[in-house]
Design goal:
Elements: E1 20-23, H1 27-38, E2 43-46, E3 62-63, H2 73-90, E4 101-105, H3 108-122, E5 129-131, H4 133-139, E6 149-153, E7 157-158, H5 164-174, E8 178-180, E9 185-191, E10 194-200, E11 203-206, E12 210-212, H6 218-224, E13 232-242, E14 251-253, E15 258-261, E16 267-270, E17 275-277, H7 281-297, E18 301-303, H8 307-311, H9 326-329, H10 339-352, E19 360-371, E20 378-381, E21 388-392, H11 402-414
Parallel strand pairs: 1-2, 1-12, 2-8, 4-14, 12-21, 17-18
Antiparallel strand pairs: 3-7, 4-6, 5-6, 9-10, 10-11, 13-16, 13-19, 14-15, 15-16, 20-21
Amino acid sequence: MPAPLSHIETTPDLPGCADAVVIGGGIVGVFAAYYLTLRGLSVALVEKGRIGAEQSSRNWGWCRQQNRDARELPMATRSLDLWESFGAESGESTGFSRCGLLYLSNDEAELEGWARWRDFAQTVGVTTHMLDATAATRRGAATGRTWKGGVFSPTDGTADPTNAAPAVARAILRRGSTVHQMCAARGLETEGGRVSGVVTERGAIRTRVAILAGGAWSSSFCHQIGIRLPLASIRSSILSVSGEAIGLPDALHTSAVSVTRRGDSGYTLAISGRGRVDPTAQQLRFAPQFLPMFLRRWRSLLPGGLEGVRSGHETLRRWRMDEPTPMERMRILDPAPDQNTIELTHRRALELLPALKNTKIATAWGGYIDSTPDGVPVIGEASGRPGLMLAAGFSGHGFGIGPGSGHLIADLVAGAAPIVDPKPYRPHRFAGLAVGEVSDF
């Protein structure tokens, strides 16, 4: 797999029972397991491949409040605090830093939109600074251009996708819970309609609580147990460069390209919102609910190919729990990056930032971003299936809000006061063909 990722050891033996089983070892899954473990629960985290190997290591690494949808902003704010406190309480490093995020633009409409968000953010105590032409050009000196304006969000930051999820998993292990890689969950056992166990390829774990944090696999898993969860995956393409590049901001966004310093001193390059839509049976099934989102974002989304069918993560086929499943045939989603997007991204980055001419492309990779019809994640108990918690559809925002999402899941499982209002994330909002208001950012 081309996306860099730290390795962790696996717990050798599967427990016979646990207070909770987390299905999926991405950033949301590991933080859910971590905060449940802090509450004194025994947790088994099962991952079909490697911890953090899919979208949690394939993203930009941004941890931001800036331009968040109002429904997600409280979660983003709390997550920043949790990113910071996790390092202090665990002794593990996720590479988190409040380096600030810089946005630059020469588009008046875009600047007006950022100013409106700034006005809204001030009402909820979030600090963001609009930059006039002089300030934007000064902060964007590495571009060698003049800018009409921009935004700087000083309390936002980045973490390192290479190390973040593995670091949290190590903290889980040290506190007594278990982590099982190369161990796919095949399905659920129930008693009286309530979850009573999770069936894995290595055997069953008795439990009263299962947390599905399976990313792009979540909808097909739900389909097996009769739960309708509308998700659609977008294939994104990212590249990283290595080498000396002096004077660049840690995190810079423009409409042409966005650049982020990675923990290894290299840089990740991407075009915001651009992706391929690979048609699958699942996408066709949920197409009516996703139509408003596709109509809003059609300029950034391009038709894809057969990558989604080959990957098998959006299948509508049923599988048996005593035979290998699609997750075992495709341990890690590693779709081919779109070469045209990679070339365009690199060309735009070199035009924007002359210092990058001293770097070389280290690697490029693709990844599947699981999205809901309104672009806001699903977090909460599945309707009609007591004991099953859903945490999916993070729509490209999951890395940054991973800590808060994991904390909220632990709160809901424990019956504690939730860290944020869970209502915007309730799963049943998509009952029938309901869509909801599509996220602006």
